[in-house]
Design a protein that fits this description.
By secondary structure, this protein is an alpha+beta fold. It has seven helices and nine strands; from the N terminus they run E-E-H-H-H-E-E-E-E-E-H-H-H-H-E-E. Helix content is about 30%, strand content about 20%. The N terminus is likely disordered.
């Protein structure tokens, strides 16, 4: 997905090797802010490196998810999709004491048009979640209030030049002051922050928020009214990640 529908997304590139994995491929490990016991607005965060899905993994998915996985042409894309979505179901199932395959997902109304393509939620549950994947990793956030997470590959410098034009004007100016070594890292954390907030609100990338939402490119996120936005320093090398939780 891109900011304009035409520009390349920073996620669409080769993933670096990630030797920092703390669990076997396909097995999630907890990172960062919160835990299952700490639900005072701090998300439970999980990171998983893509594995090799089995028939058992496929059986956890519903028919729509299996169809989407089958439609992906590249094996690495299918493996990442299946790993991400089966892990999401297992994390949520553990939290809710429910069989992963029994979970039902629906969409909230779009905050712009009211259509049924807004933020994904669990039917009949107060638990909120968010899922993101890039390269060889998926990131999951679970919370007692609306949450958004995003993980991004640090892009090549030339891609930053192309896509940065879609950002807030202040962020474009910040990036223009950086060199080819620090610019891609700053861009990646900016994009991860932006997508985390836009996923949390349900707006997504298509609502114009990429250009109007100011999150900053520096070491600390720019405050976003109504949201707690933070970087995730435990992201693997070559990636940037962030989460946003509604106050």
């Amino acid at each position: 997905m891109t900011a304009t529908g035409q520009q390349p997304h920073p996620r669409d590139q080769e993933a670096p090797d990630a030797s920092q994995a703390r669990a076997p491929d396909g097995t999630p490990w907890p990172i960062g802010a919160g835990s299952h016991e700490d639900r005072a607005g701090r998300p439970e965060l999980w990171l998983v490196r893509v594995g090799h899905p089995t028939d058992e993994d496929l059986s956890v998915l519903d028919a729509t998810e299996r169809a989407r996985a089958t439609a992906l042409r590249r094996p690495q894309d299918r493996d990442l999709y299946i790993t991400a979505h089966t892990t999401l179901r297992r994390v949520l199932g553990r939290r809710l004491d429910t069989a992963p395959a029994a979970l039902a997902f629906v969409r909230e109304p779009c905050p712009h048009c009211g259509g049924e393509h807004g933020r994904p939620v669990l039917a009949g549950s107060p638990v909120h979640f968010s899922l993101s994947h890039a390269g060889r990793h998926a990131l999951i956030g679970v919370c007692d209030r609306p949450v958004g997470v995003d993980i991004e590959l640090v892009p090549k410098a030339e891609l930053v030049t192309d896509v940065a034009r879609a950002l807030h004007g202040d962020e474009q100016q910040e990036l223009a002051l950086l060199g080819p070594e620090s610019g891609p890292v700053a861009f990646a954390r900016c994009w991860a922050r932006k997508e985390a907030v836009l996923k949390g609100t349900g707006e997504g990338l298509g609502g114009g928020g990429v250009a109007t939402l100011l999150v900053g490119t520096g070491a600390e996120p720019h405050p976003v009214p109504g949201w707690r936005l933070a970087d995730i320093p435990e992201a693997p090398g070559g990636y940037a990640a962030a989460y946003a939780v509604r106050d």
